[in-house]
Every structure is written in structure tokens, then in C-alpha cells.
Amino acid sequence: MSDGKSTTWDANLYLKFADHRMRPALDLMGRLDPANGARPGHAIYDLGCGAGNISRILAERFPEAPVVGIDSSEEMLAKARSQTVDARVTFQKGDLAHFQPDLPPGILYSNAAYHWLDGHIDMFPGLLKLLPSGGQLAIQMPRNHEAPSHASMKQAAEAGPWRDKLARVRPIAPVLEPARYYDALKPLCSDLEVWETIYQQPLTGKDPVAQYTSSTGLRPYLELLQEPERTDFYNAYAALLAKAYPTRPDGITLFPFRRLFIVARRA
Ligand SMILES: C[S@@+](CC[C@H](N)C(=O)[O-])C[C@H]1O[C@@H](n2cnc3c(N)ncnc32)[C@H](O)[C@@H]1O
């Protein structure tokens, strides 16, 4: 359930929060070496590219390299293709668990995708080995699974008549302690940066945090339920979040969100 293949991505709902989701993508991109994009014959891969927003920015930042977005969701790929005019940016259907590049990669970049894959840490050394010496692997994953936004999913799932149906949801593959990624990659790297940032995301509107997670972590739960149970479950979850993330007098709901970043340079 959590591999992103068997479920449908709602590209429009995901893009509703594009600004908040874009910020870590750009922070990650900021640590890439511009000289890498100029390697003749080498491509930049955007792994789990979604609607291609970041793929297009990668192409702007690295004007000499082909950029290839890979995703398993037809819906996301359709959105990506319909929004992209630059012929240097192309999109391919593929499963990150079995990624094999058609072109030699100079940069492998992935924003908010690998946490959907069980055992992702074991895939990262293999990704690094696909790169030439000096090539960069850049990965960002949310590490917010212990926060109320994610813990409340389980709590709401266990507290209603939907309990048995939702017991089938496999929790999202947890993102591990930063040092685990450091240890897994360091032997293959000349440079390795691992860091975390907690973004204080200012949200507005009704149920803003539940709306935010509806297109990502909550999706596998919602997809197992029919109406009216689906809405009842959503409301139970949203009520838990309203307590955990109160709306402030100025109408803003702050949603702290922890993210893990890895930028590795192949030795
Ligand atoms: C949260 S979105 C991130 C999209 C994009 N990177 C961004 O930052 O806007 C996660 C994406 O990973 C894709 N994905 C999840 N599991 C995947 C897999 N096993 N293979 C390929 N893509 C996958 C989903 O289809 C989705 O488009």
C-alpha cells in the first residue's frame, strides 16, 4: 500500500500545497554543485518527480543537461507532461525500487518520494554507484511520522467502526535516524552532508493540516473507505489535529514539519 503504485495520486490536491512542499525541494537543490550539470552526456534524474514542478526548475538551474523525471503514477506523469514545454525535460514511467537510468546520470535528485519505499536505505548505496566520481545524489524525505499529524492517523483509525478495514493500512516506511543514512553512504562518498530542518509551515483554511496530509500520508487510509464512513473517519482525524495544531488569532495554523536531507558526492 505504501509503495505509491497501487494507489492513485491526486495531483491537484498535492499541488494545493505546492509552495510549502517546494521550499525543501529548493533547499535541497541549493546544495547541488552547478558544475555537475555541465558534464557532457550526463543527465539529471528527478526520481519520484510527481507533477514535474521540480524537474522544470532543475532544468532551469542546469541549462546544459537533459532532465528525466521518473514516476510510477500515470496521473502525476500526465500532469507533468501537460505542464512542461521544455523539450529537454522528459518524463518516464518507472518504479524507483528498480531504477535503471537510460542515460548516464550526473545527478540523482529525489524530493519527497523514497519514504514511500520499504527498505529505501538499502537502495541508496546502489544509487550512488550509478554515478561517476564527483556525481551527486540528493534526497529529501519527510521525517514527521512521530508528530501528531501522522500519529493521529493511527489513533483515528483505531477509534471507530472502520478499525478492522483500516488495520490493513501499512504504515509509511519510517525514515530512519539521520546517522543511519550517513553510515550507509559514507564509505562511497568523497563528501556527505546529512541534515534536518523543521519548517514552521503557516497554513490557512478549514482543517488545514488534515487537508495537507490528505494527498500524502492519509491517502492510503481514505482509499480503503467508502462514503459516508470515509468522511466520518476524516472528521475524526481532523478533530484530533484541531487540538494538536490550534488556529492562531491571526487565522494561521502553524504546522511544524521535520524533513531529512542527504547530499552525497560519489568518491
Ligand atoms: C509526495 S510526491 C513528490 C513529487 C515531487 N518529487 C515533488 O516534490 O513535487 C511523491 C511521488 O513519488 C511517487 N512514487 C511513490 N512511490 C514510487 C515508486 N515506487 N516509484 C516511482 N515513483 C513513486 C508518487 O507517484 C509521487 O508522485
TrEMBL record:
A GO biological-process term: methylation
InterPro entries: Methyltransf_25, SAM-dependent_MTases_sf, Trans_acon_MeTrfase_C
Keywords assigned: Methyltransferase, Transferase
Domain Methyltransferase: start-end pairs: 44-135
GO molecular function, one term: methyltransferase activity
Protein name as it appears in the record: Methyltransferase domain-containing protein
Organism encoding this protein: Reyranella aquatilis
